[in-house]
Amino acid sequence: MKNIFIHAVFIVGVVIAGFIVGIVNVPGEWYQSLAKPSFNPPNWVFAPAWSLLYVLIGWAGARLFIARPQTSGALTLWTALLVLNLAWSPLFFGMEMPAAALVVVVALLAGILLFIARTWGKDRPSALLFIPYAAWVAFATLLNASIVYLN
C-alpha cells in the first residue's frame, strides 16, 4: 500500500507541475506568428502527449525513490531532468526565447539518454518508461531547432 501511495504522489505531483507550467505559459499570438515546419503537429496534440509522458516520468521517479539508496544517483538525474523539462516552456513561450529553449531541450534530450543508459542495468522498467519520453523530446528538439532556423 505504501508503494501505491508513493507512485500516486510522484505521478500526481509531476502531472500537476506540468499542468501549472502549461497553464502559465500558453502559446499565444507570438507563437502563432512564427514560421513553423511542415511537420509541426496541431496544438491539441501537445497536452495529451505531455500528460501521458508526465505519468511515465512520475512512475519512473517513484520506482527510483522506492529503490534508493541503490538508485540515488539516478533519482538525482531524474530530478534535474524534471527541472530542465519544466524550464523549457517558460523560456520558449513565456520569455519568447526559442534559441535559449533549444539549449535546454538539447540538454534535456542528452540527460534523458544518459538516464536510460544509467538505469538500464539497475532498474530496466524505469529506463523503458523513459524511451517514449526520449522519442518525444527528440521530436521536440527537432521542432524547436526548426523554429529557430525558420525565424
Automatic annotation (TrEMBL):
Gene3D superfamilies on file: TspO/MBR protein
Pfam family name, one: TspO_MBR
Top-rank lineage group of the source organism: Bacteria
Topology class, membrane: Multi-pass membrane protein
CC terms in the record's Gene Ontology section: membrane
CDD domains attached to this UniProt entry: TSPO_MBR
Transmembrane segments: 5-24, 44-66, 73-93, 99-117, 129-150
This protein's UniProt keywords: Membrane, Transmembrane, Transmembrane helix
Gene Ontology BP, a term: tetrapyrrole metabolic process
Subcellular location: Membrane
PANTHER family attached to this UniProt entry: PERIPHERAL-TYPE BENZODIAZEPINE RECEPTOR, TRANSLOCATOR PROTEIN
Family classification: Belongs to the TspO/BZRP family.
Protein name, per record: Tryptophan-rich sensory protein
Species of the source: Martelella lutilitoris
Upper lineage: Bacteria, Pseudomonadati, Pseudomonadota, Alphaproteobacteria, Hyphomicrobiales
